[in-house]
From TrEMBL:
InterPro entries: FAD/NAD-bd_sf
Protein's UniProt name: NAD(P)/FAD-dependent oxidoreductase
Family matches, as Gene3D superfamilies: FAD/NAD(P)-binding domain
Pfam families assigned: NAD_binding_8 (PF13450)
Annotated organism of origin: Agromyces allii
Length: 573
């Protein structure tokens, strides 16, 4: 335990939450409503973490969902429990995918299409036989969603219990036990259709479809079970509206939400040291919930451990000396025997999570025209717009990035928020026909930063995103990009390192680390409430409440809900 610091202000609470993202706010709201004294600490000057709306372009009244942008895994149960006023818009068109080999044609997946119209849509890209396979495949994922999604806000089922819930040995084998690429290749013939299906297993995940690690399978599962349907909805008002409601619920319940509070260390005993308003503070609690990535929590715990060891060494030195030293060292030396600090730091980076995407926000004066004249831009961009995502292109892009090069063409997915919800734009921009585009580029792993440098990588990825867009458009995307007050194009590019700097996500990993299956594997301890809810760390008084928890990832609130349930169960509530 660190020695008392005379200049520290001390505060006592039942729960201290480190990080003010949506999961931390969810936990704060639940626990405060249950009568707990809750302190939430956020290093930034605003709450919300990655789920925020921001004016990205100077002098332009448009509040974009800067980082995360769609909602699928947020349970209605959390919305109802906390009384959240959140509106989500369901998109009629699932996706549009122009054929990279002939961009004058493309596959439009319309949720309202008749069976005949659906077959005709697939036939347009020479994939008529895949129309029936598509229906059968997504009927299987719908059953997975219906049976597994309700378990995400309950104590962890075991693997055997989850399999029994699914009740379909073939589907379990295909989606859980065999590499995702096998079922996709077995059930679909078209390279284009296979690619559209495969992308849900590659979002923010740098892997191959046939990798035996099954990383793609876990990513895919979370992308198809949200809400019990797998639909991805547009939040009215942007992502900031979601976290704004969570913050309101937490405050009204009595939680203390402090911004501009940089946490310096977390002690396993429940002590959190942080800076705020120029002073150093200590908050103590029965339980500490971590809404930061597990790798960040480890560093905070290491800091506390180093400080404790230094205090003990200092106390021992005082005990051995009759006279206190006149000058004390201004830093704590690293006395651990082993690797040099520079090598230890390098190994730490190699062991941390790796993100694998680039996020690009654009503001347009209008939607661009397509080479496929049979589909209106307002229809094509209304769902997920896939570009250069043939299965073969995804495989090539992975191999290119794995050897340290930027893929070209870059596989991209595009979303237009304003076609579903124009409220994020000022009325005059709506009237003028302006639109937003969000581009999510795949297979842009964090390792490219070290190879190219962040500034050079950012410019290269921007060029590749624009080139990928232009490959299927009838006019250059540059011709319809708006300009800000200084005349600069309204383009914002976020590399993995940009995410790490802005959001403290190690390696820019949007899931805070590798995704886990939403159940307990055989032999996993399920003795404590924290273990049963999938939020345990190696320290009983420190729990995970963010995306790094079991069943974490995406804007769901599930990590926060489950951590809160573990705290309440442990206290007998």
């Amino acid at each position: 335990m660190p020695l008392p610091h005379p200049e520290r202000t001390r505060h006592d609470h039942d729960v201290v939450i480190v990080g003010g993202g949506h999961n931390g706010l969810t936990a704060a709201a639940y626990l405060a409503r249950a009568g707990r004294r809750v302190l939430l600490l956020e290093r930034d000057d605003h709450l919300g973490g990655a789920a925020v709306s921001a004016q990205a372009f100077d002098g332009v009244d448009a509040r974009l969902s800067r980082y995360s942008y769609l909602v699928s895994l947020l349970p209605q149960r959390i919305i109802d429990d906390l009384g959240l006023d959140i509106r989500l818009v369901r998109r009629r068109f699932s996706s549009y995918t122009p054929d990279p080999r002939d961009p004058s044609r493309g596959l439009l997946v319309d949720a309202d299409a008749t069976p005949e119209a659906s077959v005709a849509a697939f036939a347009k890209v020479d994939a008529e036989a895949d129309a029936a396979a598509w229906g059968s495949f997504y009927a299987d994922t719908a059953r997975l969603a219906e049976r597994l999604f309700p378990t995400l806000t309950e104590p962890l089922p075991t693997r055997d219990e989850a399999r029994a819930l699914v009740g379909d040995d073939r589907a379990w084998s295909e989606f859980v036990e065999r590499p995702l690429g096998e079922v996709i290749d077995a059930r679909f013939a078209s390279d284009l259709v296979r690619g559209v299906v495969a992308t849900d297993g590659l979002i923010g995940t740098f892997t191959e479809l046939d990798d035996p690690s099954l990383d793609a399978n876990r990513c895919f599962l979370y992308h198809v079970i949200g809400g019990g349907t797998g639909d991805w909805d547009v939040p009215v008002g942007g992502m900031g509206a979601v976290t704004g409601e969570l913050a309101r619920a937490a405050r009204e319940a009595g939680a203390e939400l402090v911004t501009g509070a940089e946490v310096l260390s977390v002690d396993p005993s429940g002590q959190v040291v942080y800076l705020h308003d120029g002073g150093e503070h200590v908050a103590t609690a029965t339980t500490v919930l971590s809404n930061v990535a597990p790798a960040v929590l480890d560093r905070l715990l290491d800091t506390a451990s180093d400080a404790a060891a230094a205090s003990e060494r200092f106390a021992e030195a005082l005990a051995d000396s009759a006279i206190a030293p006149a000058v004390q060292s201004p830093f704590v030396p690293d006395l651990r025997v082993g690797l040099p600090p520079v090598v230890r730091e390098r190994l730490r980076h190699l062991a941390e999570p790796e993100g694998a995407q680039v996020k690009v926000n654009l503001l347009l004066t209008r939607l661009p025209r397509l080479r496929d004249t049979s589909v209106a831009p307002e229809t094509a961009f209304a769902g997920t717009f896939h570009i250069n995502e043939l299965e073969s292109q995804l495989a090539t892009a992975y191999r290119t990035a794995a050897r340290g090069e930027v893929p070209s063409p870059l596989p991209c997915e595009i979303y237009c928020h304003t076609l579903s919800d124009p409220s994020i734009l000022a009325p005059e921009l709506v009237g003028a026909g302006w639109q937003t585009l969000t581009v999510f580029g795949l297979h842009a792993p964090h390792r490219l930063v070290e190879r190219l440098g962040n500034d050079a990588l950012r410019e290269r990825l921007k060029a590749e995103v624009l080139a990928s867009l232009n490959s299927v458009l009838a006019e250059p995307i540059e011709d319809v990009i708006a300009t800000d007050a200084a005349g600069r194009p309204c383009i914002e590019v976020k590399t993995t390192l940009d995410l790490e700097h802005a959001l403290a996500m190690p390696g820019g990993n949007i899931f805070h680390g590798p995704l886990s299956w939403p159940w307990a594997e055989p032999g996993a301890p399920l003795t404590t409430p924290a273990e049963r809810w999938g939020v345990a760390t190696r320290h009983p008084r420190v729990l995970l409440c963010g995306s790094g928890a079991v069943r974490g990832g995406a804007v769901s609130g599930i990590g926060g809900h489950n951590a809160a349930m573990a705290v309440l169960e442990a206290s007998g509530a």
